[in-house]
């Protein structure tokens, strides 16, 4: 954490690792169970990285859905929708589709929720990624039982 804070203090805005440091500080605070601070850091990272180069968007969306922070669902849905057909990794697609299923069910969109739940299952079952020569990279090794429970429960 102190190294990340040093990067934020000493490196100029736009330096590759600087923006990513906010996402990593968010991860540290999730580990510490300081979820409000984690969300704050994730939002800073997302505001500095509008192209969503990293995975902070996924960490942020997963956290707010698992915490039931429904006031953030519209923002999460916009982030996830922008990435739903972009990522070549089945593991990432499984999480994205699970989250979109939960959010859509909460918003009363049952057909969309069912659609994303089916897609999440399809991605979780894939044995190959979309990466040539790295077919085993990014496949689901273990499903997230909490996400699966939330998908079924909604």
What can you tell me about this protein's structure?
It is built from eight helices and no strands. The protein has 154 residues and is mostly helical.
Query: How much strand?
Result: under 5%
| Amino- and carboxy-terminal Cα gap | 37 Å
Number of strands: 0
**Can you count the helices?**
8
Radius of gyration: 16 Å
Helix content: 55-70%
Helix and strand run = HHHHHHHH
- Label the overall shape: globular
Outline of this structure?
The protein is mainly α and 154 residues long.
Keywords:
single chain, 154 residues, mainly alpha, 8 helices, 68% helix, 0% strand, globular
Fold topology:
Elements: H1 2-10, H2 16-31, H3 35-48, H4 56-67, H5 73-83, H6 90-106, H7 110-125, H8 145-153
Helix pairs in contact: 1-2, 2-3, 2-4, 3-4, 4-5, 4-6, 5-6, 6-7, 6-8
């Amino acid at each position: 954490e102190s190294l990340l804070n040093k990067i934020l203090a000493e490196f100029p805005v736009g330096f590759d690792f600087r923006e990513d440091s906010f996402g990593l500080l968010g991860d540290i605070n999730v580990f510490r169970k300081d979820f409000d601070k984690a969300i704050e850091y994730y939002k800073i990272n997302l505001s500095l990285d509008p192209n969503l180069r990293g995975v902070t968007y996924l960490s942020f969306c997963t956290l707010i859905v698992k915490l039931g922070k429904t006031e953030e669902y519209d923002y999460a849905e916009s982030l996830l929708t922008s990435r739903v057909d972009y990522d070549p990794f089945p593991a990432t697609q499984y999480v994205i589709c699970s989250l979109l299923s939960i959010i859509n069910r909460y918003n009363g969109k049952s057909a969309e929720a069912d659609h994303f739940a089916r897609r999440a299952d399809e991605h979780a079952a894939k044995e190959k990624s979309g990466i040539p020569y790295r077919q085993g990279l990014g496949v689901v090794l273990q499903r997230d039982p909490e996400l699966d429970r939330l998908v079924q429960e909604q």
